[in-house]
Description:
Chain A is an alpha/beta fold. Chain A is built from 15 helices and twelve strands.
Amino acid sequence: MRRVYLDNNATTKTDERVLEAMLPYFCEVYGNAHSMHSFGQEAGRALDSARETVSNILKIEKSELIFTGTGVESNNLAIRGIARAYKRRGNHIITSAIEHPGAKNTCQDLEREGFEVSYIPVDKNGVVIVEELKKAIRKETILVTLMHANNETGVVQPIEEISKITRENKIVFHTDAVQTVGKIPVYPKELGVDLMSFSAHKFNGPKGTAGLFVKNGIRLGKVITGGGQERKIRPGTTNLAGVVGMAKALELATANMEEKMKEEEELRSFFETEMVARIPEIKINGKEATRLPGTSSISFRHLEGESILLGLDYKGIAVSSGSACSSDDLQASHVLLAMGIEVVDAHGTIRFSLGKFNTREDIEYVIEEAPKVIEKLRTISPLWNEFQLKK
Amino acid sequence: MEYTKKVMDHFMNPRNVGVIENPDGYGKIGSPSCGDMMEIFLKIEDGIIKDVKFRTFGCASAIASSSVTTEMILNKTVEEALQVTNKAVVEALDGLPAAKVHCSVLAEEAIKAAIEDYLSKK
């Protein structure tokens, strides 16, 4: 049976060239990058080189890059760090209704600590309503944190437009770019943000290595306490092999990026056109907005998402129902509900996320098998039968 | 979260799917907004369940719970079917993840609702 991986927004396969670049940093160059001896110096040079590569690609200063462990950790450092450093100025934070749990739960946690948080709504395409954000700003607002692209729908947010507003109002702006770095051109200074989270495993790098851009001059309160690594913002021994892998992965992801984006978008377009033609009563979410080229969120009416996911898995096709981080959560996706999608349709939504290793043959296999899975489940569904009777 | 082989078997090859026209007992439990809804149709002769069919909107464990429950009550007396508990459904499936045990409760309630419908019409 063919195996097709269409869950690249959850994580990606590590590129073998990335693994190759990492291997010497386990058993050959294994010193602690912060040690004074020659083993440490050798590791330190590799760390510096990786920092230079990533900084150059993102068009930022080396001093503006903090290596972390995960995207969630980067979001925590950014949001909590700003809240702690700027709380004398105010206690109000603005975020959106569609954030990843890494940002959403951090904001909710800060609410319990006495901060006030405004959750900005999105329109039917899943785009943050900028006018609502403007209305939410108060003199106590210290931070706006908004994701660059949504992990479930792939919808890209108007970060540049919003950064103009935050600058005018002297509010720190953080973006969670975990889903965009390595997939589309992302330059924090062009976006106008003060902080930006990203993670290597989303662009064929290793899991357990991520980064946070912190613009020079932005203060961050302590979230993790320890030694002096990563400008004391993220103490702890640096994952050298991981960082080397991230630099290599970012180099590979950004080479010929426009061409790769075009190919991925064409493949997704073929996929969506065929799915709509072959399966009745489906809806592509966020279709009218700017989306990541490889993400397709589809609501299969009158069905429940997990059963579709497992039905596809039985055919060797890996997808996600909403967010992988919420897979133990039985509630319908907060992202889809915020877009005004009915709760029953939100339950029946599947995220197909393409990556650089997907081929047209993969997609041809999915568009052959998915309609059979959907048809079989609909014969069991009382909702589908009710719908058929009403027609 | 991983399902047992039994759950996957009942999910992929559900038994007794469908409708019984003019059933002697009919039960419908759950709601679309909760993500789970089950319908049970019963044919009962001389107090014995001679046929049972189901339709379910829900996750794999909801479909598997419905399927295995129909097997458990087929050819049983109404009294015996009323004794089927969600615990017995979970056992018949070799277990369900804790977050999914409510699906077995739904199956028990759907059977009870169908039998109550039958008893109310007698």
